[in-house]
Specification:
Helix content: 25-40%
Largest sheet: 4 strands, antiparallel
Structural class: alpha+beta
Strand order of the largest sheet: 7-4-1-10
Radius of gyration: 24 Å
Distance between the termini: 7 Å
Shape: globular
Low-confidence stretches: 1-24, 28-65, 68-87, 439-526
Order of helices and strands: EEHHHHHHHEHHHHHHEEHHEEHEHHEHE
Number of helices: 19
Strand content: 5-15%
């Protein structure tokens, strides 16, 4: 019997909100078998060797330079030879206006504008970030091109939870919407989860698959995490600061301020430079999305419709074959399915694949008529005396390819008993066992500067100690009898601030039925 798959159309209703406006490393595991996104994004090929050679000093991972905060001495980093765009004065900023909420916008950007709900921030840091983006229209163009695949799904999920739509813009500053962005702290994917926090929020990570790069799974985990942070701190600015710096670090900073009789809001806390610039970066992106013309930016439209559909498979399948059956370039397939680490997709029970929305029928038809095995790979356990050269020769593959496919670098040793993925025979049911995640090789620690050591990202407990007088972070937390719990007794701010404009009476329209459409695809028996 041939394998069966089912196609689940991802579609849901549109919800509207009123307007409230007045350096780089690449994931070593990501698509190790193919420089898949290199041509698409215009960046470095996605190969393990590139990650080892990349500059790991950048505080945030992305496929290209992310907006700088400031240099360690406080000076602003500029790019020579780039003329500054005309940045509007505060008086020229777009003002709130009545919106027609009776019809669904055709532009996803307009839908996002309609859902803006975070209080606006107007500070010199915001202006600095606006200038950085305005000087780099090509950077924004590439980021928008990448976001077009994922943005509709993220906006849908954000709206379902009643969250402000600015949250859908976070991946722009986290990863430039590169699904295989990888940081020196081992944060991965468009939402930049570190391994520990990813596991805590249900993102599987093993030899075959990394859920931190799975767009659907990581989006669910990121929004779960952000909701948890909002519930803990009662305001979105502190929740976002915690997403960047870690909730324990933010709680300790709040406790220190309260112990010293100081305000405990976002702008008053003593935070690392990266975190102080985190919300200003998001505000700058929001301002540009709200009115790109005022910044000299030409923002490509993103249609307000699903880009992809999800396909559920219960059988292993080669990535190359899946792309062929869907009639899409392999680069496009990998861009939609960056969570799979190897050239074969291992279906552990059920595994979702994403396809362009207009390719579901072609995939179904081609799969039905396919008569060959779905997999051309198998695992090989090293024996005593085996070497990489011998295994490569035995399976008619180059040593470089074998190392690339299995993420073998100079620092990762393999020995007898280790399992490698190698080209297989004609078996239609290859043995692809559970395998652990390859051990992470820690990057060289950067030099520490300022009062705090660089903190790990995405909820990791901050272990850096205060340098002055040997005072530890734990001692600072307990000073004057104050505890972190005192922070959480503050009155919480509203999740969505009340609108300042009058909504016209209207009923929300749904773009599709609430229950997804399911199409069962089955191959004919041989």
């Amino acid at each position: 019997m041939r394998p069966s798959l089912s196609v689940l159309l991802i579609a849901a209703g549109v919800i509207f909100h009123s307007a409230l406006r007045p350096a780089v490393a690449t994931e070593p595991e990501a698509a190790a078998f193919l420089p898949a996104l290199a041509a698409e994004s215009g960046e470095t090929a996605l190969l393990p060797a590139v990650a080892a050679e990349a500059d790991t000093s950048a505080p945030v991972a992305a496929t290209e330079s992310v907006p700088p905060s400031t240099a360690p001495d406080g000076s602003y980093e500029d790019t020579a030879g780039v003329s500054a765009a005309q940045i509007p004065d505060a008086a020229e900023q777009p003002q709130a206006s009545l919106l027609d909420l009776t019809t669904a916008p055709t532009s996803l950007w307009q839908r996002i504008r309609n859902g803006f709900g975070l209080p606006d921030l107007a500070t010199p840091r915001v202006r600095e970030q606006e200038e950085w983006f305005a000087k780099r229209p090509d950077y924004l163009k590439r980021t928008v091109e990448r976001s077009g695949r994922y943005l509709y799904h993220i906006v849908e999920e954000v709206e379902k939870r009643g969250m402000p739509s600015e949250i859908a813009l976070l991946p722009i500053i986290e990863s430039a919407y590169n699904p295989v962005a990888y940081s020196r702290a081992h944060a991965s994917g468009i939402w930049q989860f570190i391994p520990e926090t990813g596991k805590r929020y249900g993102l599987q990570q093993n030899f075959w698959y990394d859920g931190r790069r799975d767009v659907m799974a990581a989006t669910t985990a990121a929004l779960d995490y952000l909701e948890k942070l909002y519930d803990q701190f009662g305001s979105w600015d502190l929740a976002l600061a915690s997403y960047n710096w870690g909730e324990n670090a933010v709680a300790r900073a709040i406790a220190r301020n309260l112990a010293n009789g100081l305000p405990a809001d976002y702008l008053s806390l003593n935070m690392p430079l990266e975190t102080r610039y985190y919300i200003p970066k998001l505000q700058a992106v929001k301002n540009i999305i709200a009115n790109p013309a005022q910044y000299g930016i030409e923002l490509a439209e993103v249609p307000n419709q699903p880009y992809f559909v999800a396909v559920t498979t219960t059988r292993h399948i080669d990535i190359k074959l899946a792309a062929k059956l869907a009639e899409v370039p392999i680069e496009e397939f990998v861009s939609l399915n960056p969570g799979h680490n190897r050239p074969v997709i291992r279906a552990n029970g059920e595994q979702k694949l994403l396809l362009p929305a207009d390719k579901a029928d072609a995939f179904a038809s081609n799969l039905e008529s396919h008569r060959q095995p779905l997999v051309s790979w198998q695992t090989y356990k090293l024996k005593s005396g085996d070497s990489i050269d011998r295994v490569a020769k035995l399976h008619h593959i180059s040593v470089a390819q074998l190392k690339q496919i299995n993420s073998i670098t100079g620092k990762r040793r393999i020995a007898a008993g280790s399992t490698l993925l190698v080209p297989g025979g004609k078996s239609a049911t290859p043995h692809l066992p559970d395998l652990p995640t390859p051990q992470i090789v820690s990057a060289k620690e950067p030099k520490k500067s300022g009062k705090y050591a660089q903190a790990s990202r995405k909820g990791n407990t901050v272990k850096a100690a205060l340098k002055s007088k040997g005072t530890t972070a734990r001692a600072a937390q307990k000073s004057k009898g104050n505890t972190v719990k005192a922070v959480l007794t503050r009155k919480k701010t509203a999740r969505k601030p009340a609108a300042t404009t009058q909504k016209p009476a209207a009923t929300t329209k749904k773009t599709a039925t609430s229950s997804p459409k399911k199409i069962v695809l089955a191959q004919k028996p041989r």
